[in-house]
Structures are given as C-alpha cells and as structure tokens.
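User: Hi! I have a protein structure encoded as tokens and I'd like to know what sequence might fold into it. I'm fairly new to this, so please keep things simple.
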C-alpha cells in the first residue's frame, strides 16, 4: 500500500495548540511525541510498520492527556481526536486508520500485538520510558530491534536508521 501524503507540519501545529498543552504537564507532551516518532521510524526501518501510521500514533497517542499521572482514558481520547481530525488534517485508507485507532486506544492497557505497525507504535512509546527513570524490559516489547535497544540501554547506536528529515 502506498503511503498517503500527509501535511505533518500542519498536524503538529494543530496538536501543539490543543488547550491541554498550555498546562505544565510535559512528561507526556510534544517533546515525548517527537522522541516516540523518532523511535518509531528507527524501528519501522526493520519491522515493516507503516510509516504514516506510526508517525500519526506518535502525535495522537498522548495528545489528550489531562495530567502526567493517572489518566486511564487518555488513549481513548487520543483515538477519538484522530477520528475528529481525519479528513480535516489528514486522511488514511480505512485499513490503516483502524491500525492507528487501535494503537492509540489500547497503548497503555496492552503490550503485545502481532501486527507490525501496532507493535512498532507501542515499542516506540515504551522505549522513551527512560525520561521517567524506567528502563523498558524486553518482555514488554514486541519487535526484535526494540528488545535489542532496551538491552543495550540506549538508542544512540541506531539513530542513523532515521531516514526521515524533520
Ligand atoms: Fe507516550
């Protein structure tokens, strides 16, 4: 399937302008989203994940968090925002949109999935747990590369795999 053309700059501007980002809660904010996007692109170079979906996941999955602590419904709200913004800021074929929606909806409740795109989304998010002092354990990861990175303790040796230029 050919990747759709998406204006990610416009999407990011809209997401960063969401009212919640006026708050000081930034552990799950845009800096984290960017690292998740970078991680996802690194993993996608080997996992076969759909690049548009993993980049959209990075933007949406924590976009509707109301705090940095207990917010069990933030994934569902992020998935709902993706529905609301579909065909306004971006579009995806139904098959790909369903992957995006599922990945956002379940990203905190579930760890494993056999679909390489969903698996890459979730691994990319968990590989950024170092920002809150947690080293991700390989048993909670899906892709071989994410497990290798977690065991190494740093993603630095793999940064050259990011082919996208922000
Ligand atoms: Fe996240």
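Assistant: Happy to help. Inverse folding works backwards from shape to sequence: for each of the 166 positions I chose a residue that suits the local structure. Here it is:
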């Amino acid at each position: 399937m050919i990747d759709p053309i998406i204006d990610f700059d416009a999407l990011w501007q809209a997401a960063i302008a969401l009212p919640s980002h006026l708050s000081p809660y930034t552990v799950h904010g845009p800096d984290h989203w960017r690292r998740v996007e970078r991680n996802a692109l690194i993993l996608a170079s080997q996992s076969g994940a759909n690049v548009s979906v993993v980049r959209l996941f990075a933007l949406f999955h924590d976009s509707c968090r109301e705090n940095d602590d207990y917010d069990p419904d933030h994934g569902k709200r992020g998935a709902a925002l993706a529905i609301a913004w579909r065909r306004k800021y971006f579009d995806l074929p139904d098959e790909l949109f369903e992957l995006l929606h599922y990945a956002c909806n379940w990203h905190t409740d579930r760890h494993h999935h056999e679909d390489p795109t969903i698996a890459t989304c979730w691994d990319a998010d968990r590989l950024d747990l170092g920002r809150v002092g947690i080293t991700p354990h390989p048993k909670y990861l899906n892709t071989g590369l994410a497990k290798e990175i977690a065991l190494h303790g740093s993603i630095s040796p793999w940064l050259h795999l990011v082919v996208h230029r922000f």
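A useful reference point when you look it over: The chain has one domain: 29-161. Feel free to ask if any position seems puzzling.
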